[in-house]
């Protein structure tokens, strides 16, 4: 591998996790009323101590309110930035702007919002949203414009759009700083268009390197054509690590069996949304296509976890030692990712382990690059599936 750093490589990288409210996992689902407060406090404190920069507070019709949980995260931490997941069908944009600005003031500038246009008709209908998917993205576009105007307009303004109408609003309640970062994700044409033209962050699930590279180029081209700054790129993985590659692959196969059984029983989280047919959202369709084509891609990407869950959410794994997984993350940094979300299947233990092992290795590599202008040895010394003769089945003892 060439010691030179690719032109596409990100110089600044930050890490994201997801905050879990109770000990239930895809490996070991447990009945719960929702929030186990001592566990939640311990989890958020672990993320802060482990060195994560952000935590995502997800949204669903049957889950805890993301704004309330984000406010709790803000008060339980000093540094970590809460990312509030918001579906534009659930609240009026001026109210969401007010809520986000309030959170941003309370956390002294740490608030981020991730807008979910909605990829499942049945879930949208649970809260009264019957717009077709293309219209949902158009609504998100109008929503984004109104968020930013609510934060920046100096005088009262009125609006009569396709989805929202009001008279003489403002000036609105301001954020702590100039604005609040807005993240958009998705793999449909509409998601790319709106994300490229309007988002500060565009998010992807973990895909093979060549495909992520092409997707990033697509987002950048749309942003360039719109004459606006390119969005930061957020990529999500579910690492499975152990002391040796052999142990990690053995664990991965065991995990896939356990997770598959959990999903067969619909015993965890929002599995009522997943089903067994073809998913409606393009991201899940792509994940299943990759899984059907191959289980292993590049240095460490593994797709069986997506296959056994019908690609219900972010579900592609990175498998190997902490060094191999860190090297794989750097591969994605090399194609332009600068926000990396890693969350495990053994949620709290994995968050702690990643903070102890994986995050420092990635940061050490980036510090070396900053100091020398060249790659370090991490990627060359830990080839993972790039190694000649690599066989995941053999490593895992599968016959």
From TrEMBL:
InterPro entries in alphabetical order: Luciferase-like_dom (IPR011251), Luciferase-like_sf (IPR036661), SsuD_RutA_monooxygenase (IPR050172)
Any one Pfam family match given in the protein's UniProt record, by short name: Bac_luciferase
Residue span, Luciferase-like domain: 33-338
The entry's keywords: Flavoprotein, FMN, Monooxygenase, Oxidoreductase
Superkingdom assignment: Bacteria
The protein's name in its UniProt record: LLM class flavin-dependent oxidoreductase
Originating organism: Pseudonocardia xishanensis
């Amino acid at each position: 591998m060439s010691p030179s750093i690719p032109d596409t490589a990100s110089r600044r990288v930050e890490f994201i996790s997801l905050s879990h409210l109770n000990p239930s996992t895809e490996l070991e689902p447990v009945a719960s009323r929702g929030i186990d407060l001592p566990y939640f406090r311990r989890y958020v404190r672990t993320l802060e101590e482990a060195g994560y920069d952000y935590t995502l507070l997800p949204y669903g019709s049957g889950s805890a309110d993301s704004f309330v949980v984000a406010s709790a995260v803000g008060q339980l931490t000093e540094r970590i930035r809460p990312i509030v997941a918001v579906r534009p069908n659930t609240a009026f944009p001026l109210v969401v702007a007010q809520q986000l600005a309030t959170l941003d003031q309370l956390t002294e500038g740490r608030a981020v919002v991730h807008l979910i246009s909605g990829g499942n008709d049945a879930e949208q209908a649970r809260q009264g949203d019957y717009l077709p998917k293309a219209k949902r993205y158009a609504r998100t576009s109008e929503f984004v414009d109104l968020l930013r105007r609510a934060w920046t307009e100096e005088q009262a303004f009125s609006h009569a759009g396709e989805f929202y109408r009001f008279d003489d609003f403002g000036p609105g309640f301001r954020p702590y700083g100039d604005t609040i970062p807005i993240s958009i994700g998705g793999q449909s044409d509409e998601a790319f268009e709106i994300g490229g033209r309007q988002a500060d962050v565009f998010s992807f699930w973990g895909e093979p390197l060549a495909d992520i590279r092409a997707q990033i180029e697509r987002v950048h081209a749309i942003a360039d054509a719109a004459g606006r700054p390119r969005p930061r790129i957020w990529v999500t993985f579910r690492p499975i690590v152990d002391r040796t590659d052999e142990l990690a692959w053995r664990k991965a196969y065991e995990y896939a069996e356990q997770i598959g059984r959990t999903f067969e029983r619909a015993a965890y989280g929002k599995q009522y949304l997943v089903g067994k047919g073809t998913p409606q959202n393009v991201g899940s369709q792509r994940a299943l296509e990759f899984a059907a084509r191959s289980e292993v891609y590049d240095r460490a990407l593994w797709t069986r976890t997506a296959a056994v869950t019908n690609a219900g959410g972010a579900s592609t794994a990175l498998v190997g030692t902490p060094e191999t997984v860190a090297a794989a993350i750097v591969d994605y940094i090399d194609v332009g990712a600068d926000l990396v979300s890693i969350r495990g299947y053994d949620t709290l233990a994995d968050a702690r382990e990643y903070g102890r092992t994986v995050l420092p290795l990635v940061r050490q590599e980036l510090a070396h690059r900053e100091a020398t202008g060249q790659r370090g040895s991490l990627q060359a010394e830990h080839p993972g599936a790039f190694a000649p003769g690599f066989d995941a089945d053999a490593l895992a003892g599968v016959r």
